[in-house]
């Protein structure tokens, strides 16, 4: 455990997602047999079991499914950020993902609030998607 | 009713802040107490089940614990269903005994989670491992409590559950812990105290969250026939079930419905009982919202009514469903994977009428429930007092 912000370490199953974020593209795996989109990435489609998966680019819009305002940081790396919003966003394509909400105060975040993806280029390797209220986007 | 196996002995170490005992010493304390309770010796033990610990990497925990205790098992296993491990150890021991592989299984778990490192280090280690996805969640900075806060926020949104109702869970657990001499925290709480405690990750406040404790628990599982010949009245395993809804909360699309729906249904079906038959429910209480969701999903109240069920006083000792009567993870103590095992031990005490001031009068059938991950993996046990079963009886 270090004091630095924990960043994703891509693996062979997730590398296309993180290559996408570097290009500011939000990619999701889509099943070429049943057509359903899923996330987090799987080796086989969780809906039909097919291994014929391809990456699509999501539209980047969604709504807040749930959220929490973190006041006590999990590690020193997040100390300067509190209070910050950890949220689950329901993407228009269906899947949910965990993210941060910025671009508004924590008090303004509501379940159901329309949001759109934004990008934080943390370092030359890692870009993290986060979400902002859609009215600001 | 039919018994598949019996719990013949239980034991706990000191629970709370126990800086003078290592993880192995705590487990040894609990194991020796369970043997004494059953009237057995270590040489009678031919099976051992334990869980991993967070304070050390033991490589093969079951081998390390068995070797430390001098047990020569014909069956051994390290089980990890996160917080559901305690309940699941009993069922796995029952299967090992029923298969004939062994006769007498020691299940033991616990560690010095509080004293080994600082509380902050323990919280960071938990936040960056296990329940939180290393790539898709950890970079956004959730605590483990944040995962449950997301569930609580959604539950409040869908069903109108309130922070006061959640606080009432914490107050009830503390009341129960005040009657448990081994509990970590015993000073009374009020709803106002919980509501004014420090906000950790909204809507969860400090007193909505489980403790971090030192401690270990142990139980001995054997055949119903053999248990009847031992020192204490046997407590029988009548049924069990498992449920898994997701691995990570971020991707789960129905956060307020937990795998307890499936584990509960399976447990009641295997025991041929219903929620109305349960005299005492030892529900996993890592956070106050957890108890509310479990009450609903196990069928003790309609979906969405858990908050009101709690506020109406049903889960107290004089309520219709005395719940987590030892004080649970919120007040009795939470030493990691062993934490949920204390719920099983409390069910045994209640069914033997050994729970002292917190005894639920006439308790014959108990439910013990474990939950692991972020309300992800569940194991439900239904346990019966000595006189509830008919199979294999001597008389």
Report on the structure:
The complex is a heterodimer of chains A (137) and B (395). Chain A has 137 residues and is mainly β. Chain A folds into 2 domains: 47 residues, no CATH class; 79 residues, OB fold (Dihydrolipoamide Acetyltransferase, E2P). Chain A contains 1 helix and 7 strands; from the N terminus they run αβββββββ. Chain A is globular and about 45 Å long. Chain A starts with 14 loop residues before the first helix and ends with a strand. Chain B has a 9-stranded mixed sheet, sandwiched between helices. A two-stranded antiparallel ribbon of chain B has the order 5-6. In chain B, helix 7 crosses helix 11. Chain B has 2 domains: 128 residues, Thiolase/Chalcone synthase (Peroxisomal Thiolase, Chain A, domain 1), CATH 3.40.47.10; 219 residues, Thiolase/Chalcone synthase (Peroxisomal Thiolase, Chain A, domain 1). Helix content of chain B is 35%, strand content 17%. The longest helix of chain B is centred in the first third of the chain and has 16 residues. Chain B has 395 residues and is an alpha/beta fold. Chains A and B meet through strand 3, strand 4 and strand 5 of A and helix 5, helix 6 and strand 5 of B.
Question: How would you sum up this structure in a few lines?
Answer:
The complex is a heterodimer of chains A (137) and B (395). By secondary structure, chain A is mainly beta.
The major pleated sheet of chain A works out as: 5 strands, antiparallel
Rounded mean pLDDT of chain A is: 95
Structural class of chain B: alpha/beta
* Largest sheet data of chain B: 9 strands, mixed
Overall tally of domains of chain B: 2
Give the end-to-end Cα distance of chain B, rounded to a whole number of Å: 15 Å
As an assembly, this protein is: heterodimer
State the end-to-end distance of chain A: 35 Å
What is the annotated CATH architecture of the largest domain in chain A? Beta Barrel
CATH superfamily of the largest domain in chain B: Thiolase/Chalcone synthase
- Report the radius of gyration of chain B as a whole number of Å: 19 Å
**Discrete helix count of chain B:** 14
Strand order of the largest sheet of chain B: 3-2-4-7-1-8-11-10-9
Tally of strands of chain B: 11
Mean pLDDT of chain B: 95
Helix content of chain A: under 10%
> What is the top-level CATH class of the largest domain in chain A?
Mainly Beta
The largest inter-chain interface, given as chain pair and residues per side, is: A-B, 42 and 38 residues
CATH architecture of the largest domain in chain B: 3-Layer(aba) Sandwich
